[in-house]
């Protein structure tokens, strides 16, 4: 799914709670329910799903050189991180939520929280 | 299906779905508002209904259906097709506990000699945040929004404590206990039959095909004098109406089967059904909007329309069984008794400050099931429009998938 510059900027301007809500809304899409899910229910489902998939996302995202460099040096711009995360999550199979929203959620959640810094790890390759 | 089977992809999908909905039921996490006896009764109802729904699904060549209570304190039962041959219905424990407390609260007015004052629907009945007494919020409001960051555990505890406090404030003659249990069973029957109908009537598939442009769901456009594609909201409302219709038939037929050989039990069954339906629709509308405020973009018909429609469909089913007069007498009496209880509750909250703390100024709108002469014509017009939607969908389903067999 393409996420253009405007979309990325819009998504990155959203709060983490709103991103959770959007994740949750997508996760309700295949359901029929006795009533529409409330925003709180959407947020809880989105946040719960993210926590349940955290390890899988960690493996995919934290291996990205841009992310590794950021975790070590804290020197990347948000948009650059977003693009790197987006390409990592877009490569995962069976993600039932919009990948742009998920990438923005991961950036908001904090790559330092998701990817523990290991000082002993080999330095990531430099990119142009 | 063994839900614990680590090698079964369907079981895994169901486990993941339950995890998204608060996780599996943990009896130790429940409050005292849902005593063990009531919980066991509800679980027995779910097991019975699972069997009934599977029988109906098999008769229609449909998928297997499994029913799962979850730990969620929410009020949203749901259904999802987790595999081509399997649908999972989730029932939050919050639904079961609310139904139990709601029945206890409303049955307290049974036989009351008080006259229920009529609070009219009004064009001034605006959809701003209704100020419910805090004591009634665990019953009538949606899940607690205040504690998302704590992963819901604190909110869950707070919700049970508040529901326990409300339940403690309700004094009900123990002689009503069997009625509370039966009302809960009938409400769960309506709810599960409704969710099952979404699967049995291929709503998931239809929605996907309509969105992909593979199937046309069109309505008449009076101005253009030509068919136009239905909106997403219209398709959704048609499906909700369709599910209500199937549920009404299903529950009446099940009641008749259950009372076979005990015909004297059927009138009371219909009476309770009318009461349970009314309480259920009053409970499951946390926004409490009036009919005038519901809007064309709503994805569910207004509770008044659903109430009207379910009673009419139940009567149509009863007529086919030769029980029309009995149903109309008893189910309507049950519905009226529940509406009277709701009116008395509203009146006591508003005028006598029942359940109100000293600093609270509640509004007299606890539910949206209020009709009046003022909106009678609007109600009739909206009902006709919803009927047209569901008939159009019924035609589409019959052509694409065949007739449903009860």
Most residues in contact, chain pair and counts? A-B, 23 and 33 residues
The number of helical runs of chain B is 12
Q: Estimate the global geometry of chain A from the Cα principal axes.
A: elongated
**Cα-to-Cα separation, first versus last residue of chain B:** 25 Å
The counted number of beta strands of chain A is 1
Average pLDDT of chain A, rounded to a whole number, is: 87
Shape of chain B: globular
Strand content of chain B: 5-15%
What is the ordering of alpha helices and beta strands of chain A? HHEHHHHHH
Radius of gyration of chain A: 15 Å
Determine the structural class of chain B based on helices, strands and strand pairing.
mainly alpha
What proportion of the residues of chain A form beta strands (DSSP E)? under 5%
How much helicity do the residues of chain B have?
40-55%
Give the class of chain A from helix and strand content and strand pairing: mainly alpha
What's the total helix number of chain A?
Answer: 8
Secondary-structure blueprint:
The complex is a heterodimer of chains A (128) and B (406).
Chain A: H1 5-12, H2 16-27, E1 32-33, H3 39-52, H4 54-61, H5 65-73, H6 78-90, H7 99-109, H8 111-114
Helix pairs in contact in A: 1-7, 2-3, 2-7, 5-6, 6-7
Chain B: H1 9-20, H2 36-59, E1 64-70, E2 78-83, E3 86-92, H3 93-107, H4 137-140, H5 153-168, H6 177-200, H7 203-211, E4 218-221, E5 226-229, H8 232-258, H9 266-283, H10 303-320, H11 324-351, H12 376-401
Parallel strand pairs in B: 1-3
Antiparallel strand pairs in B: 2-3, 4-5
């Amino acid at each position: 799914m393409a996420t253009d510059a405007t979309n990325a900027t819009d998504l990155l301007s959203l709060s983490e709670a709103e991103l959770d809500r959007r994740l949750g809304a997508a996760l309700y899409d295949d359901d029929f329910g006795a009533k529409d899910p409330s925003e709180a229910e959407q947020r809880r489902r989105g946040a719960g799903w993210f926590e349940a998939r955290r390890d899988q996302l960690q493996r995919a995202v934290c291996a990205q050189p841009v992310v590794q460099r950021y975790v070590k040096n804290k020197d990347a711009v948000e948009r650059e991180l977003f693009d790197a995360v987006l390409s990592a999550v877009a490569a995962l199979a069976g993600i039932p939520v919009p990948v742009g929203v998920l990438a923005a959620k991961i950036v908001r959640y904090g790559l330092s929280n998701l990817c523990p810094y290991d000082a002993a790890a080999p330095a990531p390759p430099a990119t142009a | 299906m063994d839900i614990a089977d680590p090698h079964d992809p369907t079981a895994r999908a169901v486990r993941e779905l339950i995890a998204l909905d608060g996780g599996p039921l943990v009896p130790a996490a429940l409050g005292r508002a849902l005593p063990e006896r009531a919980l066991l009764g509800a679980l027995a109802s779910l097991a019975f209904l699972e069997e009934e729904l599977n029988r109906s699904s098999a008769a229609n060549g449909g998928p297997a259906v499994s029913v799962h209570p979850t730990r969620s304190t929410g009020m949203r039962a749901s259904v999802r097709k987790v595999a081509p041959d399997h649908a999972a219905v989730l029932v939050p424990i919050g639904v079961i506990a609310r139904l139990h407390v709601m029945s206890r609260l409303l049955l307290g007015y049974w036989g009351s000699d008080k006259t229920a004052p009529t609070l009219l629907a009004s064009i001034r009945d605006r959809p701003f945040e209704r100020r419910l007494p805090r004591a009634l919020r665990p019953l009538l409001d949606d899940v607690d929004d205040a504690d998302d960051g704590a992963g819901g555990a604190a909110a869950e505890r707070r919700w049970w404590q508040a529901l326990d406090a409300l339940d403690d404030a309700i004094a009900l003659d123990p002689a009503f206990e069997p009625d509370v249990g039966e009302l809960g069973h009938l409400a769960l029957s309506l709810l599960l039959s409704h969710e099952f109908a979404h699967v049995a009537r291929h709503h998931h598939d239809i929605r996907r095909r309509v969105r992909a442009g593979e199937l046309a769901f069109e309505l008449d456009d009076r101005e253009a004098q030509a068919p136009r594609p239905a909106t997403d909201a219209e398709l959704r409302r048609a499906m909700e109406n369709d599910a209500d219709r199937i549920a009404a038939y299903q529950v009446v037929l099940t009641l008749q089967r259950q009372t076979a050989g005990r015909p004297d039990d059927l009138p009371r069954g219909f009476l309770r059904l009318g009461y349970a339906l009314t309480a259920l629709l009053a409970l499951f509308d946390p926004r409490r909007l009036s009919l005038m405020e519901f809007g064309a973009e709503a994805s569910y018909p207004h509770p008044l329309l659903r109430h009207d429609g379910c009673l009419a469909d139940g009567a149509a089913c009863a007529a086919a069984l030769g029980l029309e007069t009995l149903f109309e007498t008893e189910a309507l009496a049950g519905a009226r008794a529940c509406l009277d209880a709701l009116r008395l509750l509203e009146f006591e909250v508003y005028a006598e400050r029942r359940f109100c703390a000293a600093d609270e100024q509640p509004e007299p709108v606890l539910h949206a099931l209020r009709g009046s002469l003022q909106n009678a014509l609007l109600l009739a017009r909206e009902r006709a429009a919803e009927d047209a939607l569901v008939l159009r969908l019924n035609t589409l389903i019959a052509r694409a998938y065949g007739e449903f067999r009860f």
